[in-house]
Amino acid sequence: MLLIPCPYCGNREEVEFSYGGEAHIERPKEPERLSDAEWADYLFMQTNPKGIFLERWVHTHGCRRWFNAARDTVSYQILASYPMGITPPKLPKTTYL
Amino acid sequence: MAQDFRLPQGGLIDRSRLVSFTFNGKTLNGFAGDSLASALLANGIHLVGRSFKYHRPRGIVSAGAEEPNALIQLGEDPRTDPNHRAPQIELYDGLKAKTQNAWPSVEFDVGALNNKLSRMLPAGFYYKTFMWPAAMWMKYEHFIRQAAGLGTAPTERDPDCYDKTHAHCDVLVVGAGPAGLAAALAAARGGARVILVEQDHALGGSLLSTPDEEIDGKPALEWVAAAEAELAELPEVRILKRTQCFAYFDHNYLGLIEKVTDHLPPVEKPEHLPRQRLWKLRTKQVVLATGAIERPLVFSDNDRPGIMMANAARTYVNRYAVKPGKRAVVFTNNDGGYAAALDLKKAGIEVACVVDARAAAVGRLTDQAEAEGLRILADQAIIGTEGEKRVSKVRVAPLSEDGTRVFGGGETIDCDLAVSSGGWTPVVHLFSQSKGSLRWDEDLSCYRPDKSMQAGQAVVGSANGSFGLAGCLAEGDAAGTKAAAEVGFKAKGRKRKAPEAEDYTFLPARWIYLVPSDKPVGHGGKHFVDQQNDVTAADLKLALREGYRSIEHVKRYTTTGMGTDQGKLGNVNAIGIVAEELGKTLPEVGVTTFRPPYTPVTFGIFAGRDVDDLLDPVRTTPMHSWHERNGAEFEDVGQWKRAWYYPKAGEDIHAAVNREVEATRRSLGILDASTLGKIDIQGADSAEFLNRIYTNAWSKLAVGRCRYGLMLNEDGMVMDDGVTSRLGENHFIMTTTTGNAAPVLAHLEEWLQTEWPELDVYLTSVTEEFATMTISGPNARRLLAEITDIELSPNALPHMALALGEVAGVPARVFRISFTGELSYEINVPASYGLYVWQSLIRVGEKYGITPYGTEAMHVLRAEKGFIIVGQETDGSVTPLDLGMDWIVSKKKDFIGKRSLTRSDMSKPDRKQLVGLLTDDPKSVLEEGAALVETVLDKPPMPMLGHVTSSYWSPNCGRSIAMALIKGGQARMGMKVHAPTADGRVITCTVADPVFFDKDGERLRA
């Protein structure tokens, strides 16, 4: 079970959080101008990297704030967490075979 | 009964405390400090079980968690658990133990016929045999379940109680052998908060079985006692004995099971203590000192009672002062195996010979054995054994140079004990569970920890492949010091020296994974690799011949390593045999995945106290006590208890609901609607926010007015609905369905925080702040007028408007909204006044025959009007267009889900759409969920059009009514559909408009 650093509350147990999938997917400003394929891409398609993944969490049973975290999908180490709307911090590149 | 095999002195047992226990109904004695296994051996009992598949007689193999055979059903129904390992059961007075998997008895077992038929039970037997015909599966399953059971479950509920606890520490040390103790001491001396976990009831690990070892020039157990005393004195140290660390999860989160009272006689168990306790532990640093397990040699017929691990025999002699036999043969491929030979000899057991697979019998202990005059048969192997329920003979023959063949039929040697040592396997289970990778050590022939995936993790001692005592102590000391320093603790004063001892390992060794016999493998004898699951070397070879290559597949096909012992003894041998057969190296074959739990754990610890009333919270409304007093039946809606219906004497649910429905339409009904979700929305951008969230427009809603809203997910599917009212320019109150109150709030918060942080909107859940009661029916206005100061005339308070005032003298919000189609008022008062206002309404309403109605009547009333219930008429795949609710979908503005509604798929003519159904026989009520077809065939399958979502008897329509989702439903108005029932009848219906009652809504606007 992960120990997740909420940017507002500090380290808390994973059971206090809910997962929100990939971060930095912005809702299209004018959805009606998108083709069905483009809309489906926004709606359903997320990347699935082996390594660092920027993802969204919400501290449901805590401050109820949404935030982003950078998690290594292999080691599950969380390298950073940061508020919504902030550019992700520079992170070392990890490579896995 | 006398303990004939107890040594006259020695051991870590308390001879002053005789302990009486029963084994398969027979009363036996042991001493305090015994394990069940040692007490059985003291009484000369080796035969403790029958094997899983062949029902072969099996004995005690090990002295620890790795035990594959001596699995015990402990205790009596209902306090009984299967799969306890006899070496790990601490003996207590009154203990009742039984063997598993033997019928009618372990001495005479009918299933042993399987052994004779073993040619017909190869690897994958179940897969191959019980496949066809499919219709026979039910019969097969019955047979397999009978044959395959390992133990029995209690027939009643568990009468014991279990606890769960959370803990945090700086340094967790798992294992209190020499390495673990050294680590705990070093970390604790620095002042770190240390938890030391030990599965045994005594600290010391391997030192408990090796009395000749010395640490710092003193007997090792004196050092252990001093270490325990020092740790016990330190305030930040907690020692958890009888505690198994069974799981290691991410970020240093570990699961521990503490056996709190299992070792006590029933009469001595303190009432206030749980039987077992689950520790959920988060720690900054972890030191794994989990030791190593001796590996057996896989020779022909290596499974007879009386054949055990060399080190286990040492433990029984040294720790428990028990003679596991009278005449022993020791079979080893390494120098370490001689330790057992020497200890057995010292205990007065005749050592017939040491069979040494190595070409040259050399090494520290080998030399010692030679000096003591032991007969050593170098470059030889055990090639077969005899003995029905106990080994009586072994056959020994010289090995070929490559170790794959033997010469001759062998010399026969009489014995009643045969012990083997095939090297050592580090216990890397927890390390591997935590995603650490392993590397193969060619010299030691074992997998050792390689790269850690967890911060602050160390593996020390023999778990790390450091088998020498000095190495264990030094690694433990260094890891403990480092772990404490990492979290900011450093011992004050002069650095203390690490404890010192001699350092030697079990090398040199000759690695042989499959010991040859004079007959080919699989002929004339069985080479057991996994004794618990009865997997032989021949089974592994067969799996490879049949084309299996991945070790994970071989494991699943043969079930090797898949018993409750998870192959602690056998896995490396299995990998070795597969590697040899494939002509690969062991690391090329790889290793199977380690998963929790390390040893079996009870379900009880996961349940803990969260049973019965504490299983799930119960939410009740402020008027709950009134409903109870007035005979309501309740239904669960989420965690809420909602009044379902209020039966009067002699009424069943149908009679009660019909009465409630009818009374509401005729005069007046009252419903407790407090459970509906209520979200208070404030801020300058509240209207704009609602515009984006709901499908319809909100900017122009006047203060004091209410509007029904439909909320979609971004995929266009209906998520929730409800009425939202404008209390002020920048103040709304949203209602949600009961079950969706929390998800809707989370949905709103998500969009607000992640996409629209610029909006000035504040959300507060106020569901529990208000008691909500709905009065509904032609007399609703008359009743309310009697106890409120609010002007109720249709002009002052029209349909879909709200007013603030007092009801029964209590400040109230009154909404004129309706879910029944009748003139309705929804009265909201502070929750603490709920019961009072409810009772006031009941009292004043008496003259109108006010009738409390429950959720069932509410469902009928709304269905008569064709109002949907989200979750009943919708299932996450239904759009507003499918519901025929285009009228509520704005064409102008954007909202969540809008773009998805124009996807090409959404306009397909065969989408399921909501319709009403009228059965041709008006008395016939469809079943909710019933499948609907266009054409009835002789038998299923039949192409399905859709299903019934709601169906009721409507007293007000005098007939049955139903709603359904059917393909292209809106184009099928007036057409027939059929509902074939399970009992072979067919109910035919006509597709109709889903509004069945008061289609023009005149009553609503009265």
Structure description:
The complex is a heterodimer of chains A (97) and B (1006). Chain A has one helix spanning 36-44, and strands at residues 3-6, 10-13, 18-22, 52-58, 66-72, 78-83. Chain A has 97 residues and is mainly beta. In chain A, the strands form two sheets. Chain A has a four-stranded antiparallel sheet, with no helix packed on it. Chain A has a two-stranded antiparallel ribbon with strand order 1-2. In chain A, strand 4 and strand 5 form a beta hairpin. Chain A starts with a strand and ends in a 14-residue tail after the last strand. With 1006 residues, chain B is an alpha+beta fold. Chain B is 21% helix and 28% strand. In chain B, helix 5 (178-189) packs parallel to helix 6 (220-233), helix 7 (310-318) packs parallel to helix 8 (337-346) and helix 8 (337-346) runs parallel beside helix 9 (364-371). The radius of gyration of chain B is 38 Å and the shape is elongated. The N and C termini of chain B lie far apart (93 Å). The mean pLDDT of chain B is 94. The chains are: A mainly beta (97), B alpha+beta (1006). The interface between A and B is medium-sized, with 28 and 25 residues.
Helices and strands in order:
The complex is a heterodimer of chains A (97) and B (1006).
Chain A: E1 3-6, E2 10-13, E3 18-22, H1 36-44, E4 52-58, E5 66-72, E6 78-83
Chain B: E1 14-23, E2 26-32, H1 36-42, E3 47-50, E4 57-59, E5 71-76, E6 79-85, E7 95-99, H2 113-116, H3 125-129, H4 137-148, E8 162-174, H5 178-189, E9 194-197, E10 214-215, E11 218-219, H6 220-233, E12 237-240, E13 243-249, E14 253-259, E15 276-288, E16 292-294, E17 307-309, H7 310-318, E18 327-332, H8 337-346, E19 350-356, H9 364-371, E20 376-378, E21 380-386, E22 393-398, E23 411-414, E24 417-421, E25 424-426, H10 429-433, E26 438-441, E27 446-449, E28 457-459, H11 469-486, E29 528-530, E30 535-536, H12 537-545, H13 551-558, H14 571-582, H15 586-589, H16 604-607, H17 624-629, E31 633-637, E32 640-645, H18 653-666, E33 669-672, E34 677-682, H19 686-693, E35 706-712, E36 718-728, E37 731-736, H20 741-754, E38 762-765, E39 770-776, H21 780-786, E40 801-807, E41 810-816, E42 824-830, H22 834-845, E43 851-852, H23 855-864, H24 898-901, E44 912-919, E45 931-933, E46 944-954, E47 959-967, E48 976-980, E49 986-992
Helix pairs in contact in B: 5-6, 5-11, 7-8, 8-9, 12-14, 18-23
